[in-house]
Amino acid sequence: MRCPKCAQQEDKVIDSRSVRNGDVIRRRRVCLGCGHRFTTYEEVVKANLRVIKRDGRHEDFDRRKLISGVARACEKRPISSQQIEALVDGIVGELESEYEREVPSTVIGKKVMDRLEKLDEVAYVRFASVYRRFRDVNQFLSEVEGLIGRQ
């Protein structure tokens, strides 16, 4: 591994840890040339998932975009960033095990809604209003009534 400070390739691993449920290994290294300490991450390279959008377009799956959408739905709610990360990690894990190359965006939205409904009802309704493209208050109201009926 090349040192980011002096570019020498000789280093020593001083600590290794498993992160993200064992999917990634975090290594702390020290450069034998200049003594600079740095961190590297090692993970299995998987085929990139492609998302099939509602209009038929294809785009690369973007974990950050999923986190952003869930975080927006959870704004000003008692939900930690760790809970959001865990929710997204669970969804990504399911998608990678169930789909090899392409996944419909509707499947991703459904998985997010299923998990948000269990985590926080307000965040669930917020996400549902965008995902299902509510056009008026009546659609919003019927979703809330359905949520109340399931309790």
Describe the protein in words.
The protein is an alpha+beta fold. It has two domains: 11-43; 50-149. It contains five helices and six strands. Strands 1-2-3 form a three-stranded antiparallel β-sheet, with no helix packed on it. The protein has a three-stranded mixed β-sheet with strand order 5-4-6. β2 and β3 form a beta hairpin. The N and C termini lie far apart (54 Å).
Index terms:
151 residues; alpha+beta; 2 domains; 3-stranded antiparallel beta sheet; 3-stranded mixed beta sheet; 5 helices; elongated
Distance between the termini: 54 Å
Structural class: alpha+beta
Percentage of residues in strands: 15-25%
Give the spatial strand order of the biggest sheet: 1-2-3
Topology as a string of helices (H) and strands (E): EEEEEHHEHHH
Average pLDDT, all residues: 90
- How does the overall form come out from the CA principal axes? elongated
Fraction of helical residues: 40-55%
Total individual domains: 2
Instruction: Give the biggest sheet.
Output: 3 strands, antiparallel
Runs in which pLDDT lies below 50 for 5 or more consecutive residues are none
Continuous helix count: 5
The number of distinct β-strands equals: 6
What is the oligomer described by this structure? single chain
Gyration radius over CA: 21 Å
